[in-house]
Amino acid sequence: SEMCIRDRARIRLADMELGAGSQGSTARLWDSYHGEKGESLALFLGWRLFGNRDQDGLRVLLDLQRQRNGPDQNLLEGLYLSLAGDFANAAEKFEAAYQRSSFWEYLFNAGRLFLEAGDAERALSAFNRADEIFTLREDLSAENRSRVWLGIGESHMADGDRKSAVNALAYALDLDPTNLRARLMINALAKMQ
Questions:
Q1: CA distance linking residue 153 with residue 157, whole number of Å
Q2: Where does residue 179 fall: left (phi above 0), alpha (psi -120 to 50 degrees), or beta otherwise?
Q3: Which of 61, 151, 157, 170 could form a disulfide with 165 if both were Cys (CB 3.0 to 4.6 A apart)?
Q4: How far apart are CA 185 and CA 193, in angstroms?
């Protein structure tokens, strides 16, 4: 019952609208979702629902994307699984989304989720693959690459390899001296020795 799912989604977004006091902007986006630009709007809505921690709303959007055979089902499933606390499966969905779209952010998020799931080895692999993209593209910022190297450092730290962690965190700071988290982690590691 596609109409039932659409009605549930519309009601969900209307509830979100009223709570945010945004005067109908999300409802207008929802109406556009069924138009020509629906795929990119599905991503926008998915990230917005994720940001609002709206697991039910994401489920409805995901059901609609499945009915439409939308291309971003893996990403939406990854967002949904993240909110559900199923971090390992969410990470796998982000990796699958990367295979389709090749955004470094998808691998970065997969790495963060693998870390959250306690799988430092797979996290390190995802972060390293994200870093490879930075070596191929000059248009990406050093600040974002620093975030990736922070993840590499955290992966090494989670795996018990302090020396590699310090080296990765130092490189993160070289890339972006304002990376406070990298600085704090280096300080914490220094105190542990």
A1: 6
A2: beta
A3: 157
A4: 13
